[in-house]
Specification:
single chain; five-stranded mixed beta sheet; 24 helices; alpha/beta; about 650 residues
């Protein structure tokens, strides 16, 4: 558009100079002048083309070399054409131009054109390199399009008016060209701005769509990952506990019979702690694969956590056979990182609807069955048994209540007298704990002592029994001149405690009793393989506290333990006494035990004597003491005081 405006104004000037003269061109033009006019026309067309090319190239970011070559070439053509124009002007005016000056201009123009061509060949590599890269068009929104060009047009229009001596027509044409140029530029600017904004909007919209699509795909992938994490175990890729719960609920809704198999690895904690968590994780992955290999396609396998896996089997499958197959498969070792790792598996089974009809009970009953296997020999499977489960549930209830028993003062101590078999005189008592539960009634120690050992309450309970028994003996000792003893049973867990001896010594000093008046009873099995207990026994010996072995003759220790340990008394088990009148074998064993004890200077005491004939037989063998229901059952402290110390 700038080129058209420029050419239009130049045409006005040329028309005024040549077309509006008082004489006609055809009258003065010679053949040579027409030829020059033709040259001039070609020059003008060439100038227009070069101007257009220059205006187009000006929009590109070109190298300085290319810009200078274009400028140099266009300058040469302008000078060359200007010389032709001057010569043509003088011919039209009827005068003769100075040929020498025109020759100089033609020469300069030609030199410039040739130089541009020569330099183009010289810098061809640079130009070609530049051409190998795409030209970048400025994408900023145009403002004030053609401001510099319109300034040139103002000057050109003013030149036209000067040449025409401010002719009205020329002024109108020149002004019209500038105004039209300005108006078109303004609307062109608006149009280009809109086009660029539209293009930018499209580009932004495309980028936004791509971003939205990318984010959508990321969200879908994240949702898939979250779904995987929410429903599947990351280590074994099996369904997790959340998935299992939902699947079990769906099975119950379908009301189709099925079995739940709760599995647990035997000694997994030992493997995990000894070999490290990496080996443990590898083992769990191998376990998952081995379980899958033993199950039919209709089975559902999930990992609940740790080393616990659960299986749901339709009852149309041979559940017992599959359980046995799993147990057998796990007797083969796992090869992990070149090392053989051995572990077995325990399985507890409950069935729907035979055992329960709701999710919670089915899981609980399968877990109870698993607990039974664990408490037995492990490496096996078992179905839920309602009778055993009732006992276990009662044990759980006892465990729960046991925590509050001490605080609520529900424990009691009963005392069973011990007599000298030769003179039938009272020599002491055995303190026996009882639990008087407010709702369950009297609970025997066989029911709650093992539970107290498992949950770690045996230390508090045992210390309470010791303190209560010592205080009671102190009270009785104040009203009798007999040197009585009190025997208290100890748990192996108490003997394993490093602080036990020190605390016991403190109790004795607090109650102000001699150490030899306290007798501690332990079972044979408690010190067979535990060196710490043996050390504790020798520490107790240094305090002067006598040690008795309870239920001797039915445990696992060798007779050599009597020689190596500080034992002062053995209590012959009631199982040997119960049939002593009829069994020659029992008679021989009891006789041998008593004779051996005498050789080792160990006191013997018989439990479970029920008849006078049993007493006489034991008396003949030389048994020193007796403790049995035949003389007196265990009694509370007030009844003992009333019977033996005449206190009411």
């Amino acid at each position: 558009m700038d080129t058209i405006a420029t050419v239009t104004l130049l045409g006005v000037i040329v028309w005024y100079l040549f077309g509006l003269q008082r004489y006609f061109i055809q009258d003065v033009l010679t053949v040579e002048a027409w030829l020059i006019f033709a040259y001039l026309s070609v020059d003008i067309i060439l100038l227009v083309v070069l101007t257009i090319i220059y205006q187009v190239y000006r929009q590109f970011r070109l190298s300085k070399t290319v810009n200078w070559l274009i400028f140099l070439q266009i300058s040469g053509f302008i000078i060359f054409c200007l010389a032709d124009f001057i010569e043509f002007y003088f011919i039209v005016q009827g005068t003769v131009a100075q040929a020498q000056q025109l020759e100089v201009m033609w020469t300069i123009g030609f030199i410039l054109i040739v130089s541009a061509g020569f330099l183009t060949l010289k810098y061809q590599n640079k130009i070609l390199v530049a051409e190998q890269h795409p030209l970048q068009i400025e994408t900023k929104i145009p403002t004030n399009i053609g401001v510099q060009t319109i300034n040139y047009l103002y000057g050109l229009a003013f030149l036209a008016m000067i040449v025409s001596q401010f002719a009205f027509g020329v002024i109108i044409v020149a002004s019209g060209v500038v105004i039209v140029r300005y108006i078109i530029s303004m609307y062109l600017e608006i149009y280009l701005r809109n086009q660029i904004l539209l293009e930018q909007y499209k580009q932004i919209n495309n980028e936004l769509e791509k971003t939205v699509e990318k984010r959508t795909l990321e969200i879908v992938e994240k949702n898939r990952e979250l779904e995987q994490l929410a429903n599947y175990d990351s280590l074994t890729e099996l369904p997790n506990s959340r998935f299992f719960t939902r699947y079990l609920a769906e099975k119950l809704e379908r009301d189709q019979p099925f079995a739940i198999l709760f599995t647990d690895l035997d000694r997994f904690k030992v493997i995990n702690d000894w070999y490290g968590h990496d080996r443990g994780d590898a083992l769990l992955q191998a376990v998952a694969k081995r379980l899958q290999a033993q199950l039919p396609e209709t089975a559902f396998l999930a990992r609940l956590g740790g080393d616990e896996f659960v299986i749901i089997l339709p009852l149309d499958q041979p559940v017992t056979e599959i359980a046995q197959r799993i147990v057998t498969a796990f007797r083969q070792s796992f090869l992990l990182a070149g090392h053989h790792t051995h572990t077995t598996i325990s399985i507890g089974i409950s069935q729907y609807p035979e055992d329960a009809e709701n999710e919670a009970d089915l899981i609980k009953f399968a877990d109870i069955a698993l607990y039974d296997v664990k408490n037995a020999n492990k490496n096996n499977f078992a179905y839920y048994n309602k009778v055993e489960a009732t006992n276990q549930i009662q044990a759980f209830a006892i465990e729960h209540e046991l925590y509050n028993a001490l605080e609520n003062q529900e424990f009691m101590v009963y005392y069973q007298p011990q007599f000298d078999l030769q003179n039938r005189q009272l020599v002491g008592f055995e303190a026996l704990i009882r639990w008087q539960h407010p709702t369950l009634g009297m609970i025997a120690p066989e029911q709650f002592i093992p539970i107290a050992e498992d949950i770690g309450l045996i230390h508090e309970v045992g210390e309470w029994v010791l303190m209560t028994a010592l205080q009671q003996l102190k009270a009785w000792q104040a009203i009798t001149d007999k040197k009585l003893k009190i025997a208290v049973n100890l748990s192996p867990k108490q003997l394993q405690c490093p602080e036990f001896v020190g605390r016991l010594s403190h109790l004795l000093s607090t109650v102000e009793l001699n150490a030899e008046q306290l007798e501690l009873e332990i079972t044979e099995s408690s010190f067979v393989k535990e060196e710490k207990i043996k050390v504790t026994l020798y520490k107790l010996q240094l305090l002067g506290i006598p040690i008795a072995i309870d239920d001797f003759g039915t445990g696992y220790s060798s007779l050599g333990q009597l020689k190596r340990l500080p034992i002062q008394k053995i209590k012959i088990a009631r199982e040997l006494i119960a049939d002593i009148a009829n069994s020659q074998v029992d008679q021989a064993i009891v006789e041998a035990l008593i004779k051996m004890a005498k050789k080792l200077e160990i006191i013997t005491i018989a439990e479970g004597v029920e008849t006078e004939s049993e007493l006489q037989f034991l008396e003949q063998l030389g048994c020193e003491h007796v403790q049995s229901y035949y003389f007196c059952p265990p009694l509370p402290a007030n009844e003992v005081a009333a019977r033996y110390f005449k206190m009411t």
